[in-house]
Amino acid sequence: MFPEIARTLVTKEQIAGRVREMGQAVADDLRADLARDGHSELDEGRVVLVPIMTGAMIFAADLIREMPVKLSIGLVTVSSYPGQSVSSKGAKLASALPDDLAGKHVLVIDDILDSGQTLELVTRVIAEQGPASLRSIVLLNKTARRSVEFEADYVGFEIPDEFVVGYGLDYDGYYRNHPEIAVLDPASLGVGG
Ligand code: 5GP
Ligand code: MG
Q1: Domain of 77?
Q2: Residues contacting ligand 1 via CB (< 6 Å)
């Protein structure tokens, strides 16, 4: 049986309010960085956002529209939950990273911080390029499940150790378009891969 949504954890309104706050906070911090560098916020190519596909696409799409800063976007794809799986099999880069991040102010965007493997990997590889600053933002944080040391600079919501879907997060490729953060019915949830 395909897992059904059991209940909502974070509503559309809660998400929208928090995304607006975070967009402003990140934009303020980036503008401060640019001013410290002696750059105008309108100087081109200084701020690069790196959303981690596919889960971060909806969060990133909403967040950038709340960030009044001149920015460009370089996607990266990381796979960690192949198929019908609810636990990470270890993060792997599944696409090339943007390779021109030296001297840039980089913000890595992900949907959720869980074991930490995805963000630890992506930020480590970006750091090797020598960005001017490197920050990370996640909509959701499950502190309970961290297996590598990693903390995000900006967190939307702390959530308990439950498998969630919606707002970009999937189960076996589905439910990314569900507009709220929801929990699946555990009775129908397979834990295999
Ligand atoms: P980490 O590498 O920190 O364990 O996990 C990060 C990735 O695993 C996220 O980008 C997300 O794609 C996936 N993930 C972690 N927890 C959940 C969850 O509760 N639901 C879904 N759908 N994906 C998750
Ligand atoms: Mg992901």
Answers
A1: 13-162
A2: 52, 55, 80-81, 88, 91, 110-118, 163-165, 169-171
What domain count does the chain have? Answer: 1
pLDDT tens digit sequence for 8-47: 999 999 999 999 999 999 999 999 999 888 877 666 679 9
CATH number at residue 19: 3.40.50.2020
Q: Which residues pair with 76 in a beta bridge?
A: 52
**120: in domain:** yes
Whether 123 maps to a domain, the answer reads yes
Is residue 173 one of the residues assigned to a domain? no
Q: Which atom of ligand 1 is nearest to the CA of 142?
A: 16
Q: Which is the closest atom of ligand 1 to the Cα of 114? A: 3
Q: What is the pLDDT of residues 45-92, one digit of tens each?
A: 799 999 999 999 999 999 999 999 999 999 999 987 666 666 666 899
The ligand minimizing its distance to the Cα of 119 is 1
114 is catalytic: yes
- Dist. CA 140 → ligand 1 center (Å): 9
CA distance 141 to 98: 25
| Reported pTM | 0.93
Cα maximum dimension of the chain:
58
Rounded to an integer, what distance in angstroms lies between the CA atom of residue 14 and that of residue 163? Answer: 19
Residue 117 lies in a domain: yes
